[in-house]
Amino acid sequence: MKDLKHLIYFENLLQDAQNELVTKAVAEGKHALGYNCYYIPETLLNLPGCFSSRLRAPRCVSTDIASYYMTTRNCPYVRSILERAIEGGYNYLEALFGAESCAAMERMEEHFVLIHPVKNDKFFSTIIDPPMKGDENNLNYYKAQLKLKVVDKLRDELGVDVSEEAMLKAIEDHNEISRLITEMGDLRKLENPPITGYEFHVIQLVSQVCPHYLIKPYLEETLEELKTREPEPKFPFRARVALVGSEIDDPDFTKLIESCGAMVVADRYCFGSFPGREQIEVLPGESAFDAICRHYLQWNQCARFMDGDKIDQRHNEVRKLVENFRADGVIYENMKFCEFWSYEKVLANHIFTNELHIPCCTIEKEYALGAAGQLRTRFQAFIESLEIKSIQGGK
Amino acid sequence: MKKNRCIACRALGWAARALGWAILAGVGLFAVTFTVYMFNLENKLIYRYIYPFLQKHYNSQKRDRRI
Amino acid sequence: MKLTDKLIKAVDKKLERFDPLWQAEHGVGGLRSRYYDKTGVAKYREWRGVKDTFYDYTQWLYNLMSMGQMVASAPVKCLRGFWEYRWMGSYLGTFMFIDRLFEGYRGYELRIAHMNMHAIVQSLTKKIALVLANDRRFGGGPLTDRMVPMDEVLPPLFMAGFKDLIPIPLQTLPEFIICDIDQHIEPYYIDVAESYGLPADVCSRCAAETGVTIDDAFPIIGKAFLSTNMPCNASESTSMFQRRRVNLPYQPVTMAMIHNEPGAHPYSTQELKNAIAFIEKEYGVKYDWNALFERAKQMNEQNTIELEKWDFFKTPYSALVGIAETLYRLYSWASVNGQEDYFTKNDRKVIAIMRKAYEEKYKPFSGKTRHRAFLWGPSAVYYTDFPTWIQNCWGINIVLNMDSTMGHNMIDTSDPEKAMEDLALFSEKGVMRHHAVGGWDNVNALWDWAKKFQCDMVLFNDNVACKGMNGVHALMEEQARDLGFSFIFVEHDLEDCRTVSRRDMRRRVSDYMSMVLGEEPLDETLVDFDDSQAW
Predict the structure, then answer these.
(1) Cβ of residue B67 closer than 8 Å to a chain A Cβ
(2) Residue C531 falls within a domain, yes or no?
(3) Model pTM?
(4) Residue A189 touches partner B, C-beta closer than 8 Å
(5) B63, C96: Cβ pair inside 8 Å?
(6) Which residues are registered as beta bridge partners of A330?
(7) Cα(B33)–Cα(C57) distance, rounded to whole angstroms?
(8) Most CB atoms within 10 A, among A21, A90, A307, C412?
(9) Would you call C61 and B39 a contact, using CB atoms and an 8 Å cutoff?
(10) How many CB pairs below 8 A link A and C?
(11) C535 domain-assigned
(12) Sign of CA dihedral C524, C526, C527, C533
């Protein structure tokens, strides 16, 4: 396929948390608001005058100082983020909105207050207590937490307009970005898609780490380009897989899978588009803020949810993705030392393999893409098994 | 009166004998249990024989393992 | 002095050379001398002098009777339980466990230790008999459908309003208690979980729970299951597996994680109310507030006494020390939670002895304590006698354990709404939660506690798989340095003795004591020994 016009530009934007578009937005007086987790609605951080910045630590090769604070026995994603903060990589941030999504995440976010790694006089941070069920009591708690620790803070600390109109504007922005990404992502449903999993991963990531108003023109242009892009004459992969897991923010991981012969057709992980790029609908009689909270709780498929409905939902959603994107199998990833995904992958592997009869491969990885050789072997073996299954007519 | 006294004497004798047996049994019981206690006999028995026997049994069990 | 006292004193003098404390003091042996190498099996029991040995013997008998009663109450099912459940076999280690815990204890501290321990033994044996007698696996019983299996770390006091139901902390028998008694039991279950793909770096307690689930080793009881998000992440995840295996209507009771904020309590209150509504629906029963208030009064009295105990802990004259304090509080709070009168009565007796000991200016361990330590963080359950060892070897008295500070607020006993709010606060601060979860301020509270209890030392239980506590490692170390506390990270793997052995834990402390503080041990035989094959 012909190279995408902006792909290299997008790749460059992913080399640093403070990329050129972030720097530009800050220079224009926009409030840079960091977050780590889907539990913090990106939409709220894109209220007029603000932009969201989902924290990554690209090219982080050593976490020595963060490991001093949090030990080497902790999640490499959170250590990398802390390390990058200590290195000064997030000094553009005016706030970090954290969530006690897991103990490691919460401790890392606390360090943003306790050791002051962000050298920005305006910087402040809050941590919400996110819900673990999808029922009414948990929705009310979620709303109360987001109001107290995000919306009110934005208004009081930064003077951000949090009115109904401003919220509706933020939803509009979210829906527009989501429409662009979804349209691009849906191309992966085609038998011979004009986009690879790697390219889509890059595009999805830039939409999360760049100010929306600055990245949108590039995304629009890329979508138009994709509509007319000629795919390879023959589907160049041996299999199609859905990738499921936690904080996968390194497109090279997707590239690794694809280099082994399987196209990543669906991205259900924390930095992926499922969930994340669904349209927010404001129901009659509902405030924009309530709609945002309801939407994010409803779509959230974090492995920490405990109620039966949410547990089943996250497996059903993956099953649907497998069907809609015609995946031959599922790869479940968990970050080393991640309690939630360690358990989830055991359960999911059982459900997919033994109950849904969808081939499933589980792997554990570091944040920075190390031990690629081992992973490559695992993926090759899995893809081979998918191929054999396909040759045998799915038996 | 004499007959009654004899019955009382006999009853007293039985009671004394019963008490004697009870004391003897108590002392015996104490001697046995205190010996078991002091020489840690119950733990030695469990550690050397009962526990290993049970482990062997548990290891041979077929359990309904599943998620 | 009475004649008997004189006689006892003479005998004690005659036999003092058999007393391991005397031996240690005179360099001719010590507490470890009477053991067969590696096994943890003693050749003979500890000679503590006539009075204390006799007291220890009577308590041994007393516990033996409780166990006899357990078997006698449901002989067939108890025996079937032994045959069916691997964890039941480990309960045979109870006597050795008790001996280990109270080594070196004398006088008042021995009396209180045994009173507390017997409270646990009598309660636990009844619970085992009750559960086995009604286990569906063995044909069930009249109470099977009146039992409510609950997650062990969900405080069951709020269930007291269901006076005809019996809350059973599901994991208590196969995991929560037995791991204290036999260090080799949970590795089996951990291996089962890991054989299904669970990584070895998750919390071993939760891995063990998952192994029990997969291995089909839970008793089968009840009509609906209450799980919880307490205390932490891995524990939450285990519920996914239990939900499937228990296969009953299921409700997770998710208490606020960041629980020190006003917004948390209304949420948690509603969670408890929803749990009550769920049980009402599933069991077809009505909640009785008066029944709750009755038990809450018991819990309030226990907590009132507990607060008084704390006042004694602050002095050198507390007769309740070390593991006798920790284990009792943990069991009486987490498993009994105000539901058994025995514990209130026991508390009354214990506090009376503590008052007496204080008046007499009685110093436990013959006044050999050199350091007063606060034990912070979840402890290694496979080394329950660690506080005993550290006192006997280095003279470090563990004055209070973090978990003993759990839910000690009073529960309203007249207004249902207020009672629920109090219960929410009470439950939020459950096992491993009050200070290990909920934000930095909760952890950092350690120093205030340590100061308040006149401690010069902090022992930080460093569960290698606890992501939350790992996340504050350097901050704690820096705080200790700034505030001038002697501070030891005691690495352990909670329920997996293979990762960090008891010996490794001891070495960590001994290295610090000898190299950093330059101190000599009280008992040379305890500094380094192998108990890898002990229960």
Answers:
(1) yes
(2) no
(3) 0.95
(4) no
(5) no
(6) A242, A360
(7) 9
(8) A90
(9) no
(10) 147
(11) no
(12) positive
Q: What is the end-to-end Cα distance of chain A in Å, rounded?
A: 33
> What ipTM was reported for this prediction?
0.95
Please give the structure tokens belonging to residue A238: 């041996």
Residues in chain B closer than 8 A to C83 (CB atoms): 57
Task: Find the residue in C nearest to A142 (Cα).
Answer: C267
Cβ within 8 Å, pair C199-A334? yes
Indicate the residue of A128, A131, A349 with minimum beta-carbon distance to C197: A349
CA C60 to each of CA B34, B38, C57, C75, C121: distance values in angstroms, whole numbers, following the listed order: 10, 11, 5, 21, 11
Look up residue A343 and give its two tokens. Answer: 């358990």
- State the DSSP H helix or E strand holding residue C77, giving kind and residue range, or none if neither: helix C75-84
Identify any residues that bridge with C138 across adjacent strands, giving them in sequence order.
none
Helix (H) or strand (E) holding C325: helix C322-330
Q: Which residues contact C107 (CB under 8 A, 6 or more apart)?
A: C52, C319, C362, C364
Say if CB A255 and CB A187 are below 8 A apart.
Answer: no
**d(Cα A23, Cα A1) in Å, to the nearest integer?**
32
What spatial distance separates the first Cα and last Cα of chain C, rounded to whole Å? 43
CA distance A106 to A67: 15
Residues 207-246 (C) with a CB less than 8 A from some CB of B: 214-217, 241, 244-245
Helices A308-324 and C233-246 cross at an angle (nearest 10°) of 90
Q: What is the pLDDT along chain C (535 residues), one digit of tens a residue?
A: 688 999 999 999 999 999 999 999 999 999 999 999 999 999 999 999 999 999 999 999 999 999 999 999 999 999 999 999 999 999 999 999 999 999 999 999 999 999 999 999 999 999 999 999 999 999 999 999 999 999 999 999 999 999 999 999 999 999 999 999 999 999 999 999 999 999 999 999 999 999 999 999 999 999 999 999 988 888 899 999 999 999 999 999 999 999 988 889 999 999 999 999 999 999 999 999 999 999 999 999 999 999 999 999 999 999 999 999 999 999 999 999 999 999 999 999 999 999 999 999 999 999 999 999 999 988 899 999 999 999 999 999 999 999 899 999 999 999 999 999 999 999 998 888 888 888 999 999 999 999 999 999 999 999 999 999 999 999 999 999 999 999 999 999 999 999 999 999 999 999 999 999 999 999 999 999 999 999 9
Do the domain assignments include residue C167? yes
Question: Rounded CA gap, A117 and A339, in Å?
Answer: 26
Q: Which DSSP symbol is given to C116?
A: H
C384 in contact with A, Cβ within 8 Å: no
Provide DSSP, A205-259: HHHHHS-HHHHHHHHHHHHHHHHT----SS---SEEEEEE-S----HHHHHHHHH
Nearest by CB to B64, from C89, C196, C216: name it: C216
> Looking at chain A, how many residues does it have?
395
Rounded to whole angstroms, the Cα distance separating C373 from C351 reads 22
Of C232, C257, C183, C256, nearest in space to C496 by CA: C183
Contacting residues of B for A346, CB less than 8 Å apart: 67
A346 inside 8 A of chain B by CB: yes
Burial of residue C4 (CB within 10 Å: 0-12, 13-18, 19+) is exposed
Q: Please answer yes or no on whether B42 and C95 come within 8 Å at the CB atom.
A: yes
Sheet with A31-35: list strands edge to edge: A50-54, A31-35, A95-99, A124-128
d(CA A324, CA C326): 56
Q: Considering only alpha carbons, which residue of chain B is nearest residue C213?
A: B67
Residues A153, A95: contact at Cβ < 8 Å?
yes
Is residue C146 a part of any domain in this protein?
yes
Nearest CA in chain A to C231: A103
